[in-house]
Recover the amino acids of this structure.
């Protein structure tokens, strides 16, 4: 049989279809719960895949992967808390939009953007997997370091309104991630002989603390509405086509960023969404409104993080190198299923490869449906009287922090991060830069030090490689451009002083 | 008022005796196995393959919990510090048990545990890129001598078993290797493919799974493997390196005898189950099982041996 | 209440002090494995970050002290402090008497603290929600939550 048809047949078997639906729904739920993310979801379903047919087990895992990448955005919109680290950039515009009473519309934007991003990456996977795999091999530690430095510009871009405070928060995030065991030599750093700290400060408890706990702490200080908040619209509303037209450029750009970053092993959806968001903030004609509920921000964050799903499979399938913890679990499961990923896969096992393509497309469609059908339920959360909502959110947040490693230390970390986050909110320190710093820190440090092993200690050799040099140059340009503009602006009269908004 | 309190305390007492009564037969609730590495790795996959048959043998669910961090030490330490009731075990791998203790102060030592069983033991191998200009250890050594300081050896962690193997090779052959620490097998493989590293030591199944991209120079155990008869041993080539990657179940010291017997039996049943055997076959890995007593003796022996290796490499903490 | 500027400067000051303490820690003699690898040691990157942190903290302090800002309203601060304290107590409760019992208490008490007084709703909600979350994690997601010392299962 033709491999394409064989793949289509395998993907549309009843068992596979059922697993697509189950996997995607579980994925969305796991994504929605703060703290639990893609990795927890995929390890949860892993035992069930052992007894399943090949395509069905892959469908289950891909469903969870796609669903969880999207689910976190719902929590970001409804509760001002990213359900997963991938959705941290979605908070920036999602919550302000919900606060205006348009949660239904915000969910419409992210659902559509996620689906489009996911489908785009399937297209990339179909058309260019081997080429993209070869491209990812161009990235040695030196290129990763350059990419990490480039990504740091995100911190500057999301903290335009309070630059020094944002950069300081970013630095604090970079530092936090260095606590624990040195990833390169295994030395203990900043643990002060507390053994529990030797495995470091986990990212997820910090995120749920900084966003969810702090949000709840701050809300308790406000005059609370004891009845239901009727001004919130519930349901699901797709943005009209004319709203999309001017934003297609941002969408395409973000999809490309997500697909490229996703194809690099060792980077993930969180990095992709921050880069895409910060790029949108740099080029969008509506950039002044970003951070105040502008759809551009939602499109950038959500289309890019879902564009990672397809392309993260590129190195996994074409090289046998897992791209991130999620694909590592999938790779392990594939091996148990008797699939040996690698260059041969695209020659010997085309039916399976096609089946994966179709399954991914189906996952994205089911994801859209889950979002559209589930939105009325999720947005209804906004109508729960706040005094009740606050403890309910806190309980689920605490479990989320605990559940990642099953560790009480993570609960204390989350509570401490909650207090820190509350102080940051009150004093006008932006929170996202701290998360960006924490996400990027291990990649920057490790690639820097590995790069120095490769060049045998020479830092100058970092600038001899074309990709790295390009990225360094771009970074410099992005940092210097605002300065140039300001100097020009000064000649034409002082710009109105911006008031940082708290 | 009195009545109410009496009734309440009677109910509470009743519930508690019920809980205590059911607790007598081990196990009456799920048993947790702490895997000290992230999901998806070799240790994790092996543990999850034991999950179902071991649970069936014990008559309860097995929960696999991944506590990654500090090179596996964090998860093993967690296993050392739970209640010694048999409901929490750790899948303790070779590194955290026998190499890490020599490198730094740990919150446990070999006496912190009761040993349940050895669950797996896999030979490791020297792997290089398919197109590398050497096919044997001798050729690799000759290359390293011709281009001193050029070869980079990717290690999954400083002081890990692959690192120990590399140190042993460098010492025996009198060559210089640069060590590139990465975060596990996947990143090590990536480093090999993109040219950052030239050699690394994976689990032997890795070679058959990725044979278009890598080739093995030598298997690091005394005998050839029946599934891979063409892969010569390092010993045949004049380098007596024997660095298996193994792991077994341990519980905190003071495990009740009844629980220990049942867990040992459960572990044995799991390693004999058809599904587990199939996985081992797929991984080209011989099934290895030892009961608690044999496993403890093995761990102590390996501990002494790895201490010597790390000492001679100058890595041991004074 | 202090102004937002003064409070921001205080936060930056705390970060400056933290940078100093951690910077000092990088000179401790506990970094013994590092000689195994070429290139820079474990202290290199954290020191770089800490220097950046200290520098930016100084910038923020100067900026904030020069900025004129209105004093923060102290309204609700006491309630927020009480809510925070209750949450910390909840954390301690989870560690000592287990997830289920402490969650029931927390869900029942927090709304009261925030001025909610519909008792039947509280009684039902706290039990149903806590049990539902507990069940979902323990039985469905197989994530074992902290138990109480008294019962085998919760």
């Amino acid at each position: 049989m033709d491999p394409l048809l064989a793949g289509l047949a395998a993907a549309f078997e009843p068992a596979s279809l059922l697993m697509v639906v189950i996997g995607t729904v579980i994925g969305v739920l796991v994504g929605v719960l703060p703290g639990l993310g893609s990795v927890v979801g995929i390890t949860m379903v892993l035992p069930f895949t052992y007894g399943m047919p090949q395509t069905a087990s892959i469908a289950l895992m891909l469903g969870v992967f796609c669903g969880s990448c999207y689910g976190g955005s719902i929590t970001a919109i409804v509760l001002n808390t990213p359900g997963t680290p991938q959705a941290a950039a979605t908070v920036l515009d999602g919550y302000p939009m919900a606060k205006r009473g348009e949660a239904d519309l915000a969910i419409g934007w992210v659902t559509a953007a996620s689906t489009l991003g996911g489908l785009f990456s399937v297209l990339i996977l179909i058309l260019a997997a081997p080429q993209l795999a070869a491209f990812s091999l161009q990235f040695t530690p030196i290129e990763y370091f350059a990419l990490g430095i480039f990504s740091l510009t995100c911190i500057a871009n999301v903290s335009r309104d309070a630059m020094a405070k944002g950069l300081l928060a970013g630095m604090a995030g970079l530092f936090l991630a260095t606590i624990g065991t040195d990833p390169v030599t295994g030395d203990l750093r900043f643990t002060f002989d507390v053994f529990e700290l030797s495995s470091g400060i986990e990212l997820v408890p910090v995120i749920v603390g900084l966003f969810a706990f702090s949000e709840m702490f701050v809300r308790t200080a406000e005059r609370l509405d004891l009845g239901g908040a009727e001004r919130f619209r519930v349901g699901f509303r797709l943005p009209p086509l004319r709203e999309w037209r001017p934003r297609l450029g941002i969408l395409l750009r973000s999809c490309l960023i997500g697909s490229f970053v996703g194809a690099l092993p060792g980077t993930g959806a969180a990095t992709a969404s921050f880069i895409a968001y910060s790029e949108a903030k740099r080029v969008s004609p509506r950039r002044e409104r970003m951070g105040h509920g502008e759809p551009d921000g939602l499109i950038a964050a959500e289309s890019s993080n879902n564009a990672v799903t397809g392309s993260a499979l590129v190195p996994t399938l074409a090289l046998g190198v897992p791209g991130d913890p999620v694909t590592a679990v999938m790779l392990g499961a594939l091996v148990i299923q008797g699939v040996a990923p690698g260059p041969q896969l695209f020659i010997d096992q085309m039916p399976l490869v096609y089946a994966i393509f179709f399954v991914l497309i189906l996952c994205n469609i089911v994801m859209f449906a889950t979002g559209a059908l589930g939105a009325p339920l999720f947005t209804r959360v906004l109508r729960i009287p706040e005094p009740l909502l606050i403890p309910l959110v806190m309980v689920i947040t605490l479990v989320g922090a605990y559940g990642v490693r099953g560790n009480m230390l993570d609960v204390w970390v989350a509570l401490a991060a909650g207090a820190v986050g509350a102080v940051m909110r009150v004093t006008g320190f932006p929170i996202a830069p701290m998360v960006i710093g924490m996400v990027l820190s291990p990649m920057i440090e490790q690639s820097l030090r590995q790069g120095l092993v490769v060049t045998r200690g020479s830092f100058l050799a970092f600038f001899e490689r074309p990709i790295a040099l390009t990225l360094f140059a771009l970074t410099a340009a992005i940092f210097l451009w605002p300065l140039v503009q300001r100097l020009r602006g000064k000649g034409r009269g002082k710009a109105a002083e911006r008031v940082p908004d708290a | 008022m009195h009545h109410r309190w009496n009734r309440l305390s009677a109910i509470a007492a009743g519930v508690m005796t019920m809980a205590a009564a059911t607790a007598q037969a081990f196990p009456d609730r799920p048993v947790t196995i702490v895997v000290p590495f992230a999901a998806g790795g070799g240790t994790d996959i092996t543990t999850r393959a034991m999950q179902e048959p071991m649970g069936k043998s014990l008559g309860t669910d097995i929960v696999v919990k991944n506590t990654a961090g500090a090179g596996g030490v964090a998860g093993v330490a967690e296993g050392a510090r739970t209640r010694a009731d048999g409901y929490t075990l750790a899948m303790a791998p070779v590194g955290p048990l026998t190499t890490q203790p020599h490198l730094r102060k740990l919150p446990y030592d070999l006496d912190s545990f009761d040993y349940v069983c050895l669950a797996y033991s896999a030979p490791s191998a020297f792997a290089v890129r398919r197109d590398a200009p050497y096919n044997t250890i001798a050729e690799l050594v000759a290359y390293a001598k011709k281009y001193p300081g050029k070869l980079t050896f990717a290690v999954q962690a400083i002081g890990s078993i692959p690192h120990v193997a590399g140190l042993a090779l460098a010492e025996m052959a009198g060559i210089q290797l640069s060590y590139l620490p990465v975060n596990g097998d996947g990143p090590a493989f990536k480093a090999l493919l993109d040219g950052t590293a030239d050699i690394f030591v994976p689990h032997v199944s890795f070679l058959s799974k990725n044979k278009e991209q890598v080739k093995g120079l030598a298997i690091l155990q005394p005998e050839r493997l029946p599934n891979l008869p063409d892969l010569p041993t390092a010993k045949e080539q004049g380098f007596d390196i024997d660095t298996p990657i193994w792991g077994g179940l341990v519980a905190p010291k003071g495990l009740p005898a009844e629980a220990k017997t049942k867990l040992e039996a459960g572990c044995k049943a799991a390693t004999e189950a058809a599904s587990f055997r199939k996985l081992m076959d797929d991984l080209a890995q011989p099934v290895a099982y030892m009961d608690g007593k044999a496993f403890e003796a093995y761990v102590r022996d390996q501990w002494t041996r790895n201490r010597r290796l790390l000492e001679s490499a100058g890595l041991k903490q004074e | 209440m202090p102004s937002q500027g003064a409070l921001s400067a205080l936060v930056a000051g705390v970060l400056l002090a933290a940078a100093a303490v951690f910077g000092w820690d990088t000179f401790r003699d506990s970094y013994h494995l590092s000689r195994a690898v070429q290139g820079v040691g474990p202290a290199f990157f954290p020191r770089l970050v800490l220097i950046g942190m200290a520098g930016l903290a100084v910038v923020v302090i100067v900026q904030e002290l020069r900025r004129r800002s209105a004093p923060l309203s102290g309204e609700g601060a006491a309630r927020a402090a009480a809510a925070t304290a209750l949450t910390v107590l909840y954390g301690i409760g989870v560690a000592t008497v287990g997830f289920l019992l402490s969650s029931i208490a927390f869900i029942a008490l927090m709304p009261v603290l925030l001025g909610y007084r519909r008792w039947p709703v509280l009684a039902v909600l706290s039990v149903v929600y806590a049990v539902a979350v507990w069940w979902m994690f323990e039985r469905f997601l197989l994530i074992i939550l902290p138990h109480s010392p008294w019962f085998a299962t919760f």
User: Anything to note?
Assistant: The longest strand of chain A covers residues 180-181. Chain A touches chain B through 51 residues (CB under 8 Å). The radius of gyration of chain A is 22 Å. Chain A has one domain: 3-491.
